[in-house]
Design a protein that fits this description.
Length: 936
């Protein structure tokens, strides 16, 4: 049964269009025609989830399958969550379960819910969504429910964090999908359809799913005392394989949200996987081998996608776009094909050593995109330790190229807390920036502007640094060192990752099943949306209390102070030997310290980069310990990770196997495939930048409506919608001039959010004359059905715009009398009721009283904060009672609506009604029926 959206998305809900499921590209398949019904649930707010490329691709793939239906759900913002929840403390509860946005059905009505788990602390958001849906949080509770006759959907997770180490979250999921989902999810769908046909039990169905490579069912595995995980039945594999798929760009074309999202553009993947071998980088290890997409597929997907979506910007996506050797040729081909469309290209963080004139040529457009490089470390020694493969000369050459090509601001990413890092290396970050500013002056005079992000390194599973320990106390000290250095530097802005986030990420990310109880308790204590800075204090308190209650505080303290270090300074060796000997004696005497790892002392300021470092003698002990994720076969040989760690200790680099010799990491073979690298292609001649056509040959005035759920789309979102509509309709729209040309589309007046209308007006100016009916047909064909066109007129180009001519507006409002006003003229909330008492409502008399009253004074505050008294009666032109019943009334009024701010809003009429009636008047519904232009 569908949820009644109109009861939920009322005036107090922010950005209600998030929850409508009516975007361009949304798929609505017949419910009864599907054998398996999916929900892809993204555990973040809509603006984040709806722009996630993996979410879009899998949604498109599943809906392309016969008899498979896929809907979507997102984490509701706190205002809607409070309204959904049936808790007594919720102010406006509707006792409504969380729903999928397209079908608007409760999540419990579906067969399977898939969550994207791409962040260590994201599981609390998943628990929040399950709770809002009325679904038990753990697989054990759901299994018990099934045994008692319940029919709950299967709950699974995928994504980078789920693939890397699902053990801290194993209690909550029926199964985990490891690796790429393009081929895996359709296989899961086939098993589900067969299981439903054969009426399999929940456990039998999961056992069938466990036979699919890439499906890990935690309940069929137990954790040993040492943290390792092993099967508890013979029918499941000892190791679960990560799935690998070939990218298909065509599936990237899909949803076009009405609200602005964090990545408000078309995104197409050009390369999946990275073989650079950065030793800190988990995505680079978990996505091998590298698979380049055929250039023709990329070009066709972008060209088709821009036409289908109407986006003004596209992005080419890869972990390392610059390693896609065909990038300059592909980018230039697309830029030439879309030359006349005012389109911009952006790229994610790039390899600075590959940034050259060819890549600079394809970036941006009329709107120059930002430029981001990631040197990661401030000294050459540290870059070699992490296998960054970047020299100072390459860094300088790339930044100089950017300055020469017009960039005056560059974003740089650095990390602190890396293995083997000394204070000299930390201060080297500031010295590197100072050096780049000195060498790369703008116009030979002004220093280059830098935005710096200083992240705290946290070791990740399946990387050579997975055995390393970090110290949050050291993070804080090193951040303080950098702040002291940057204080005297100009033209830089520095952002630091909060140390508390890093501590929580590390604690959970490399944990085992014991952390399941911690995750659940943290959520119960208020953790959620932990990556958002405004929630950080609450989240940190919740996590630390949950850790304390779990009895794992000792382990968290190791994250704060550091468990051990891969490196040991020569002068500390003797001290280390002394401590180990003391520890051995304590053990013999039965009084050894109660901790898993010894704690290393903080590093003092290192005066020189030549200070000798060597591997800790404890290294072999730690490398041989079982890890909670050893039962996952990602393709990377654990022995190779050990070997690469030893290379790191020697500051030895390993070449990129996509372009040089094989490093024998273990991935390439039958299960995972091999690197697929596309050679560089000839770069087409540049056809020239977009030149905005500012000619004005024709103007059309369009009368249109905003009805149904489109009333919940805000004004700025409506302007973006019109921009995309004229692009999809291929109308010859005229542009403004200047550095940021915009289409000449002018909406007469902003309609308040939630208000329907049958009388809105917009002017469109074109660069060439076309037939009015052709214009109307093209525009109507690309507009949403709830933005109907009522009339189109051709207007003289010299005539004033609709916003200049606007004089008045006619509204039809529904109101109710709900209680007496207090002595100060405000409504008595304690004594008001939801439904007005009919015998106290005399609408005819109140309307007449308003007409006969000469003044209703109200204080108006301008945008600048100034106040002045306004007589609202002067702004009321006409008022009539349309109908009344049981304390409610429908009124029609015409009032001022001018661009200079002389307005009579529906709220103003409510104020006048309250003054004459001395009743609280509630505004139930508003519709703007027409805008009135003053032509004379």
């Amino acid at each position: 049964m569908a949820v009644k959206i109109e009861e939920l998305l009322t005036a107090e809900i922010n950005q209600p269009a998030r929850y409508l499921g009516n975007e361009l590209g949304a798929v609505r398949k017949p419910w009864d025609g599907a054998s398996v019904r999916w929900v892809l649930t993204y555990p973040e707010v809509y603006e984040v989830g709806a722009s996630n490329l993996g979410h879009i691709i899998l949604y498109n793939i599943l809906n392309a399958l016969p008899r498979q239906l896929c809907d979507r759900a997102y984490l509701p913002a706190p205002d809607l969550a409070a309204k959904l929840r049936s808790s007594p403390r919720a102010a406006l509860t509707t006792k409504t379960p969380l729903f999928a946005v397209e079908s608007r059905r409760s999540l419990t009505e579906f067969d399977i819910l898939g969550f994207s788990l791409s962040y260590e602390l994201g599981a609390t958001n998943i628990l929040e969504m399950l709770d809002l849906a009325g679904i038990p949080l753990t697989w054990k509770e759901r299994a018990t429910n099934a045994q008692n006759g319940g029919d709950l959907p299967l709950i699974f997770a995928g994504g980078q964090t789920a693939t890397s180490n699902p053990e801290p979250y194993a209690d909550f999921f029926d199964f985990i999908a490891l690796g790429d989902g393009e081929e895996l999810l359709p296989e899961i769908g086939l098993i589900l359809a067969e299981g439903k046909t054969n009426n399999l039990s929940r456990e039998a169905l999961l056992l069938d799913l466990a036979q699919i490579p890439g499906v890990y069912v935690p309940q069929f595995y137990d954790m040993a005392a040492d943290g390792s995980v092993h099967p508890n039945r013979p029918q499941v594999p000892e190791k679960i394989l990560r799935r690998v798929a070939t990218p298909i760009p065509a599936y990237s074309i899909g949803l076009v949200p009405y609200v602005e999202t964090v990545h408000d553009r078309l995104t197409v993947e050009i390369r999946r996987g990275c073989t650079r071998g950065c030793r800190f980088c988990q995505p680079g290890m978990l996505t091998r081998p590298a698979r380049d997409v055929e250039p023709q597929q990329v070009v066709e997907a972008i060209e088709e996608g821009m036409k289908a979506t109407g986006h003004s910007e596209f992005s080419l996506l890869s972990l390392s776009c610059s390693d896609y050797l065909a990038l300059p040729a592909v980018g230039m081909e697309i830029k030439n094909r879309l030359k006349d469309k005012n389109i911009s290209l952006s790229l994610p963080s790039q390899r600075v050593d590959r940034f050259d004139d060819n890549i600079a040529d394809i970036l941006g457009g009329t709107r120059q995109s930002g430029l981001t490089f990631a040197p990661e470390a401030g000294t050459q020694r540290m870059r070699d330790i992490v296998n960054k493969g970047l020299t100072n000369e390459e860094l300088l050459r790339g930044v100089k190229t950017a300055v020469d090509r017009g960039w005056d601001k560059i974003k740089l990413y650095f990390m602190i807390g890396l293995p083997g890092e000394t204070d000299f290396d930390v201060l080297g970050i500031a010295e590197t920036v100072r050096w780049l500013q000195r060498e790369c002056r703008l116009n030979g005079r002004r220093p280059l502007n830098f935005n710096l992000t200083i992240s705290n390194f946290t070791p990740k599973p399946h990387t050579p640094f997975q055995w390393h320990s970090v110290s949050t106390a050291e993070f804080s000290r090193k951040q303080k060192l950098l702040k002291g250095e940057f204080k005297a530097m100009r033209n830089i802005k520095v952002n630091y990752t909060d140390v508390r986030i890093s501590a929580m990420e590390d604690f959970v990310g490399r944990g085992d099943r014991r952390l399941g109880a911690v995750v659940r308790r943290a959520w119960e204590l208020g953790a959620g949306m932990d990556a958002w800075w405004e929630n950080l204090d609450t989240a940190y308190k919740a996590w630390t209390r949950a850790i304390d209650e779990s009895g794992l505080t000792w382990k968290y303290r190791q994250v704060e102070s550091g468990e051990w270090n891969l490196f040991e300074k020569e002068e500390e060796k003797e001290e280390g030997r002394r401590k180990r000997e003391e520890g051995r004696r304590k053990k013999e005497e039965g009084r050894e310290d109660k901790q898993d790892f010894p704690t290393s002392s903080p590093l003092p300021l290192s005066p020189s980069p030549t200070l000798p470092l060597s591997p800790s003698p404890l290294l072999p002990l730690f490398l041989d310990r079982p890890l909670p994720w050893d039962h996952l076969d990602t393709g990377i040989d654990k022995n190779w990770l050990k070997l690469d760690l030893l290379h790191a200790l020697e500051a030895a680099t390993v070449p990129d196997c996509s372009f040089e010799g094989c490093s024998r990491c273990g991935v390439c073979g039958t299960d995972f495939g091999h690197n697929v690298v596309v050679d560089a292609l000839p770069i087409p001649d540049f056809a020239g930048e977009f030149v905005p056509n500012t000619e004005r040959k024709q103007r059309f005035r369009v009368w249109f409506g905003k009805v149904g759920d489109m009333a919940l789309v805000g004004h700025l979102d409506l302007l973006r919608l019109f921009d995309r509509v004229v692009r999809r309709a291929d109308l010859p729209i005229s542009f403004t001039g200047g550095f940021h040309p915009n289409p000449r589309i002018s909406v007469a007046n902003a309609l308040p959010l939630g208000v329907t209308s049958t009388g809105e007006i917009a002017d469109f100016e074109l660069t060439e004359s076309i037939d009015l009916e052709i214009f109307r047909a093209k525009l109507a064909a690309t507009l949403p059905e709830n933005i109907p066109i009522y009339k189109v007129e051709s207007i003289d180009l010299k005539a004033p715009s609709a916003s200049q001519l606007l004089e008045a507006a006619e509204y039809v409002i529904t109101v109710a009398a709900t209680g007496l006003l207090t002595e100060n003229g405000e409504s008595d909330q304690d004594n008001s009721t939801a439904v007005s008492v009919a015998d106290t409502a005399n609408w005819e008399a109140w309307v007449k009283a308003i007409a006969e009253t000469e003044a209703f004074w109200r204080v108006h505050t301008t945008k600048s904060g100034k106040t002045r008294d306004v007589n609202l009666r002067d702004r009321l032109h006409k008022l009539e009672l349309v109908q009344q019943s049981e304390g409610t009334a429908v009124l029609r009024y015409t009032g001022s609506c001018r661009s200079d701010g002389n307005l009579l809003k529906p709220e103003h009429l409510v104020f006048m009604l309250e003054q004459v009636s001395q009743q609280e008047i509630q505004l139930l519904q508003v519709q703007r029926s027409q805008l009135i232009l003053g032509y004379g």
